[in-house]
Design brief:
Structural class: mainly alpha
Low-confidence stretches: 1-15
Number of domains: 1
Helix content: over 70%
Strand order of the largest sheet: 1-2
Number of strands: 2
CATH architecture: Orthogonal Bundle
Strand content: under 5%
Bound molecules: phenylalanine
CATH superfamily: Hydantoin permease
Mean pLDDT: 92
Radius of gyration: 22 Å
Shape: globular
Largest sheet: 2 strands, antiparallel
Oligomer: single chain
């Protein structure tokens, strides 16, 4: 059985554990990536954004932006050996670049905490559903009863607050204890179980009358329905679901031993993550179409559809209870990875112990989470950033702006600031692949992300002008990097 090895890489005062095998690293990274993003968020945003074309853009973003940035982020973490702020400071100094790069780490810590504040609220719905399922509440549930069941839960702030508190306490408790063996054992069991239960659900979905329509909805692309806002959401989700752009994979990468391949580990993470999301989507939309429900019903989609399936299928009580246990579990392994970067920052920067750091941060995100709890009931009509509730604003700001921005700068750092030999040594990519990878990182990634941002800010011809301006700035930046960091 592989075990955690202790190594002393950062400083004599900070003991760092490394994940001793590649498999354990992949498990932990998959544990972070697979979560509410796949099971809860992907289906509902796919429904809200019209299906097929949205899914295709999302898949394109995972492949062309997500995967290369995931590789870049792990590389940064492994080279810098620390929390995101520290890592960027150390690497910028080593490569002779500006200290401002540490802002990338700050953006990440902030985004992580903001995401966690609503993540634990939604995970709380999962805990509530786990207990409901165990008590047999979903047996023979009709579509209407299922949606009423969710409405009743969401209308009750105290109950939401209670489950939000439970999830926050669990998250803080696991993080406070540090990277431990228990997590590996749990992940070992969880991932295969989750895949298996999704396959069981797929089997059920295939027997419903909605299956064909669901596949059609998810995979037949009609680009005429796609807005630039939907493209932004698809891109943001690619970052959210792969846990990239904020430093989670940086911290995890710092535990990843040198002899293992970053490319193949990243590929595993992306493949498993995408598979889980697509499976969840097909199952959920089969139930939607079989029961004449609305595809665009929003954040409640997972919770108002699956109970119908568990109410109808044989063994529904067992599968339902196990499924919601796995949802909670998948959410927890992601939640801890949202808290970990800030905890390790407080620990490394100020010497604050893990327990204190985790509790303090947990309290802050819990408090902010109260706003999300209220977004679904008492503050339903309180709007920020246009017509968004507090929850929607937090989600939009982090997922669609902070993560893509963070990811873009990580790509730029690895592509332009890293010295060629350092990058080659750290990533060890096959030569031919390396050239394509670098080209993509240097040009496609920043241009695509800026383009999508620009298209959401302005319309028509103005997009071209904004892009020309942005590219000119980028060109100037590249020129200055080439002059300052690579003399000769
Ligand atoms: N990837 C996680 C999910 O899909 C969420 C997450 C985002 C975790 C960013 C860590 C960092 O649920």
């Amino acid at each position: 059985m592989p075990s955690l090895k202790l190594s002393n890489k950062v400083s004599s005062t900070v003991l760092r554990e490394t994940w001793s095998t590649k498999r354990i690293f992949i498990l932990a990274a998959v544990g972070s990536a697979v979560g509410l993003g796949n099971l809860w968020k992907f289906p509902y945003i796919t429904g809200e954004n019209g299906g097929g074309a949205f899914v295709l853009v999302y898949l394109g973003c995972v492949l062309l932006l997500g995967l290369p940035i995931l590789m870049s982020e792990i590389t940064l973490g492994r080279a810098g050996q620390g929390n995101p702020v520290h890592t960027m400071q150390v690497l910028a100094k080593r490569q002779g670049a500006s200290r401002l790069w540490s802002l990338l780490g700050v953006n990440g810590l902030l985004a992580g905490a903001l995401i966690l504040s609503f993540y634990t609220v939604i995970a709380g719905w999962g805990v509530a559903y786990f207990f409901d399922s165990a008590q047999g509440v979903f047996q023979t549930m009709s579509a209407q009863q299922a949606s009423e069941h969710l409405t009743v839960l969401l209308a009750n702030p105290l109950q939401l607050l209670w489950w939000h508190t439970v999830v926050t306490v669990l998250t803080v408790w696991i993080v406070a204890r540090g990277v431990r063996k228990g997590l590996e054992v749990a992940l070992n069991f969880m991932m295969p179980a989750l895949l298996l239960i999704l396959l069981v659900l797929l089997g059920y979905a295939m027997t419903t009358t909605g299956f064909e329509q669901s596949v059609q909805f998810m995979f037949a692309a009609d680009f005429s329905k796609l807005s630039w806002q939907a493209v932004l959401v698809a891109m943001g989700h690619a970052f959210f679901t792969l846990s990239i752009g904020l430093g989670t994979m940086m911290v995890y990468g710092s535990y990843f031993e040198r002899q293992h391949s970053i490319a193949s580990a990243s590929l595993w993470v992306a493949v498993v993550d995408t598979l889980v999301a697509l499976l969840a989507g097909v199952v959920i939309f089969s139930i939607v179409f079989a029961n004449g429900l609305a595809t665009g019903s929003g954040p409640g989609l997972l919770f108002s559809t699956l109970p119908i399936a568990f109410g109808q299928m044989s063994g529904g009580w067992f599968f339902g209870t196990l499924f919601f246990a796995l949802v909670v579990f998948a959410a927890l392994t992601s939640a801890i990875s949202l808290l970990e970067p800030s905890v390790s920052w407080l620990n490394q920067r100020f010497g604050i112990g893990r327990i204190k750091a985790a509790c303090g941060l947990g309290f802050a995100t819990w408090l902010l989470g109260v706003g999300t709890v209220l977004s679904f009931n008492m503050w339903q009509n309180v709007h920020f950033m246009g017509t968004r509730t507090l929850f929607e604003s937090l989600d939009f700001m982090t997922t669609n702006i902070m993560l893509p921005l963070g990811g873009m700068f990580m790509a730029v750092f690895v592509a332009w600031v890293f010295k060629d030999q350092d990058r080659a040594q750290e990533m060890a990519l096959p030569k031919r692949f390396s050239a394509v990878f670098l080209l993509n990182l240097k040009w496609f990634v920043p241009v695509a992300i800026l383009w999508i941002f620009a298209s959401n800010l302005v319309t028509g011809q103005a997009v071209w002008w904004v892009m020309i301006g942005a590219l000119a700035l980028y060109g100037l930046y590249v020129k200055s990097v080439l002059q300052t960091t690579r003399p000769g």
